[in-house]
Amino acid sequence: MRRPFVAGNWKMNGTRDGAKRLAAGVAEGVSGLEGVDVAVCPPYVFIPEVAQVLEGTKVAVGAQDVAKEQQGAYTGEVSGGMLKEFACRYVIVGHSERREYYCEDDALVAEKFASAQRDGLLPILCVGEKLEDREAGRTEDVVRDQLEAVLDRNGISAFAEAVIAYEPVWAIGTGRTATPDQAQEVHRFIRDLLSAADAEVAAGVRILYGGSVKAANAAELFAMPDIDGGLIGGASLDVAEFTTICRSAAV
Ligand code: 13P
User: Fold this and answer.
1) C-alpha R_g of the chain
2) Euclidean distance between the first and final Cα of the chain, in Å?
3) Does 1 have pLDDT greater than 90?
């Protein structure tokens, strides 16, 4: 069925040497581990060396963002084609930190999703509500709007070559994890929403949970029927934590 997937989002952390050490530690920690796909998403500048360290291992490389354009006068941007040249397989799009701090709206996220796929990368599309949305009972409305923007732009078939990450904003970096039931409810909602467009695509798409996942709580989250792995922030910077999380996802 769906193969579990655990990706580490290193965010803007680490040093050049530290990134290489972390990558090597993860590769060693998950070598021989079957039944789960594993990726790490370092900051752009570390990608070439991390990709070298990971070559021939089971750990794939992803980026944390991508330009919507393919090339040209876009100062500061990095295109999907450039990432592809450095062995990236995945790219995170629409992370809540990009939405919040860099004013990325649903339309831009939908363009970035398209851009990633145009260049042969698998987007990891992040969606999730803020605390005030949840408290006002608007979780499903927010997640629906975020998904529909990408669906309207790219069509349901695009989700056959993509990953979704449900990351409630209130759970990111706060130590406050969604309960397995809370997460499952939204994961189910996402799958049902996609299913209305194409049941087969919906059944096949991997939906990761992200938000304060740690070695200590990963197994109970991954045991839920619609949670297919995790997108891990803080805990992905620690080899032992991250590899334990990967092990909890393996089937
Ligand atoms: P934390 O695991 O640090 O809460 O971050 C989650 C996240 O934002 C992954 O993209």
Assistant:
1) 17
2) 11
3) no
213 CB near ligand 1 (under 6 Å): yes
Selection from 83, 193, 210 nearest residue 146 by Cα = 193
Separation of 167 CA from ligand 1 center, angstroms? 8
Q: For the chain, give every domain's residue range.
A: 5-249
Cα–Cα distances in Å, from 9 out to 45, 71, 149, 155, 251? 14, 25, 23, 26, 22
DSSP state for residue 128 in the 8-state scheme = -
Q: Tell me if 104 CB under 6 Å of ligand 1.
A: no
Q: What CATH number has the domain spanning 5-249?
A: 3.20.20.70
The model's pLDDT over 86-134, given as tens digits with 9 standing for 90+, comes to 999 999 999 999 999 999 999 999 999 999 999 999 999 999 999 999 9
With 0-12 / 13-18 / 19 or more C-beta atoms within 10 angstroms meaning exposed / middle / buried, residue 56 is: exposed
Mutate to test the pocket of ligand 1, among 212, 217, 221, 245 (most ligand atoms within 8 A of CB): 212
Share of residues in the chain with pLDDT > 90 (%): 98
**In angstroms, rounded to a whole number, what is the distance separating the alpha carbons of residues 203 and 201?**
5
Distance 13 CA to ligand 1 centre (A): 12
Q: What is the pLDDT of residue 175?
A: 87
Q: Which of 97, 100, 130, 167 to mutate to test the pocket of ligand 1 (most atoms within 8 A of CB)?
A: 167
Nearest CA to ligand 1 atom 1: 233
